[in-house]
## 1
Amino acid sequence: MIGFGFSITCMHICREETIWVSPFVLSAIAITISFIVLDKDCLEKTKKLLLYLIPISIFVIIIFVICLFNYIAYGLFTLNQYSGKVWNNVMGAITSVKVEKEYDSVPVSKEAMQKLYEVSPAFNELKEYFETPQDVNWYAYGQVEGEIEEGWFSWAFIAAVDYAGYCTDAKTANNFYKKITDEVNKAYEDGRLEKKENKRTFFDFNKTDELLKNLKLAYIYQINMNGCEMRAPIDQGTDTLVDEEAIGFILEQIDKFKEITGNNSTNSKTYNYWVDRVKINSLENITKVYAKISPYLFKIAILTYILGFIIFFRKSTRFSNFKEMTLLTGILILYILRLLVISYTETAKFKGAISTMYLASTYSMQFAFEILSVWFLINSLKKKRSIKKED
């Protein structure tokens, strides 16, 4: 329970992926609690049920401590910017401007920005960043030409505020966000801005076919390990891992990582091209082999999973592999949920979500499911054989 409390808390803090992990966690808790309550042979039921307070307490305490540290260091009692009230208020204000042409995937269009510049002196300070070329071309992402699509806008907005000099500390940034919120809301009140009706829903069911198509694409991309390259795809067609300019940028970023975290890392002095090339070549070959056999391994795992359920429901061996099947089902549900979340993002948020980066967590789930599914079936068959011998 202690390990569970720390792991789920760390996942929430570091990756903020509890939205797709929580269904499995809650389902697993509900199932185990039901068995504890309904099992007549279960002893000390109250103590076992109270154990669930341990992970809940760990989660609440750690979140509170982090918020407290943020308050001491930055003056804001919040877990992070995205979960804070100020950020959500400013995003709510600037994404509610009524415009002539709406885009499903564009939260704040150029037309909306022009209107915001006119009514909000604070937002007008960001005009230079949005209207002039920058190091990162936010308009290049997505499919709507000349617009910053959802998923990218929040990053562009933060970058613009930083460019304007208001990200020196958390209080300064929050005060600037509050100023924008107040000015925009005042414009709504006095009629200088027209507020659109909030008709945006979690998902447009007219895109169900597209969602299912993307789900299939995400599965094919993941199971075939597409995009799992050990080499940086910058200088293709040459024997080098990356070109000199690219490797210089990478090493600079690694040095920054070392400076921020205080951890040792590869840098311009320790980087060895020949040694690293052998390592990367080896990993690349292993990846290629596994990519070829991966689809077959997964099919075998699904087959052994089904056989496991046959053992689970069979009269002579009923419920004998309850723990194993619960764990396997949980892993499989997590795997499917992650693919579904990425497919939803690809369909409703922004294009490019089906990628190795966003699917990274699915590979460990896939490997775990494949190994455990086969292993559990072998163990179940061994148990069945030993019981027959005893009889």
## 2
Amino acid sequence: MKAMQKFYVIWIGQLISLLGSQLTVFGISVWIFQKTGDAVPFAVAAVIYQLVGVVFAPIAGSIVDRFPRKPLVILSDSIAAIFTFALFLLLRTGSLQLWQIYGVIFGLALADTFQRPAKTALVALLLPKEDYTRAAGLNQASEGLGPLLTPAMAGVLSVTIGLGGIVMIDILTFGVAILCIFLVSVPELTQAERHNNRQQDWRQDLTIGFQFLWQEKGLFILLCYFSFVNFLLTGTSNLLGPFFLSQGGADRLGLMQTIAGLGILAGSLAMAVIGKTRKRILTIVLVLQMMAIGMALTGYLTNLWLLGLTLFLTFACPAIASANSAAIFLAKTPQTMQGRVASARSMLATALTPIGTYWAAWSADNFFTPMLMPDGKLASTVLGHLFGVGAGRGIGLMFAIAGALLFVAGLVAYSQPALRGLEAFAAEAEPTS
């Protein structure tokens, strides 16, 4: 079996598992909103997930480079399945509470923190460099299929088998993912390479990925840019649920999530088909500028079809940027450091997202939403006339502000010579193991 064929088998298994997990996420999101009606519980769940990734990422990267990567992916999926089964038991006994959902989220985040660098490092060993962008595009496509397929599926399944049945399907999909990767033979680091990694002091080992990124100035600037993008994008994305539920109910939310999924899928498939782009850095900055414009317009517009168009743009562009970015980091990182660099990259790229997520939710509930209600302080101002007043309009103003900040950030990032020269620098210096 050829390398790309092996990747397809692994990818299909992970895709099926991801769809199952996103069915559960959709059902639990509706459960949380029905129980609380606030944006903050959404943010708390997201912050827990993000903080686990930030705190444990350096440890995960070190372990990935010290041990075989295929067993680590299987172990991570197995741990996630166990926590999902705990959620199933709580639902079956009728004792599910909000704090218990947070505990399950902690377990799932911990498993994902170890799986992601292990899977990234495995792909780097499995595929030649010319297939990195294609693989990254397919991985992004799997992220887009979830929002595209799960809302309608979750709606039907909620009526027929209930939330407990949905969670059980999720558990079974973990089994499919484990089986797919178990059946495929994948290359690993040699025992000598793993032995050399194990000889390093644990405390020093935790910092090696960060040292590598700091020394590669172009990569570091790119990472800082993505960190700021994630800070604003993740915070506002977590408000899409309250934004659309407050204006049109679950039907509108489901429709918009489907459109967002189509955007991610379109951008990802474009990269999977095209493969390597000639001007990766320019492509990244241009598509993220388009995303910023789309985000700002999403907050301003009220027409359903125009909202769908801007939301499609907002989610298609990051998929293109992420695929190009992932390929650059994979190609520049030595094979023996893939796990530690991937974890360091993940940690730094998402370090600000817990703050952004909670700040966005708190600001929406306590400042922006009250300010643009009919009796709010901004209702009679220019902002009130531009964005309208009522449910969801304060969150819309937040989207517009975030879009404007992202656009400025793109201009600042591209003004840096080290970032503009990254493509040429990467071509001159091929990584060694």
## 3
Amino acid sequence: MPEEDSFIKNLIFRLIKKHISGATINSAFKLAKSLSEEGTHTSITFLNENPNDVIKARYNLNAYINLAKQISRLNMDSSISLRLSQIGIKLNSELFRKNMDEIIKISDSLGIVLWLEYEKDVNYNNIFDTYIAYADNFRHIGIELPIRNIKIDNYLTRLKNKALIKLTYHSYIKESEVKSKKHLNIVDSYSIAIDQINSKLNELYIIEPEEKVINRLVEKNKVYKRNLIFEMPLGYSKKWKKKFEKKKVGLSVYLPYGKDWIPYAIDKLTEGRIRNLAITFLDGKKIREKNGKLSKTKK
């Protein structure tokens, strides 16, 4: 029922809207500027998912180009977080390469880091190979590394010196691609990856929504507190943020804006059974994911 679906979506949006800055770029800049003045870095992303044609890919590209220019103009302590599907990696290779060339040249010339996000619907080999291809020629490019991925050790050995890395534990990974079926302590999982790549790093970020996990990592090793930057989603606990600032822990905030919030809610804010419930309630009873947006399947 359309009315029931709309009610459920509105209800869920009210629960997760604290994690989204708003629908427009101005809403993102308002928050980013405020956090920058507090000494907190932000990683800004546009919530507009997989394009199904060249025009939409160009629209997304223009949004990120504008984002880079505005960050530079306003002199904010912000970087850009990009999903390669947004600029056409799933459409065709020539279009994608052209778009990627354009955004990295502009962001790099402005001194703004462009982060390549992990995506469940894009082959991670393609994401990593894109990063490697550009890392030799551009200083301001970084990549998310899913530490539970079965090929993580291979990716770690291929990193360049002075790499810009974000480690993520919580990214949704297909069961067949998980490195170990054993339940590993999350703090130990991070520690193993950190120790493996520490000598190659320029900056290392840890994407972690749970403040208690961040605190356990900080308490585990004083070196981590000095050398790591912890990235929390917008909607973080201000109480914990003050605690981390008192301990002089490096912090960053993942700051999304835009109207296409459903894929973000499912893939970034939920896990396990909660993720399955989110798919069910946000996408109807019989649905499929198509072109990055959620639509009902026809009987």
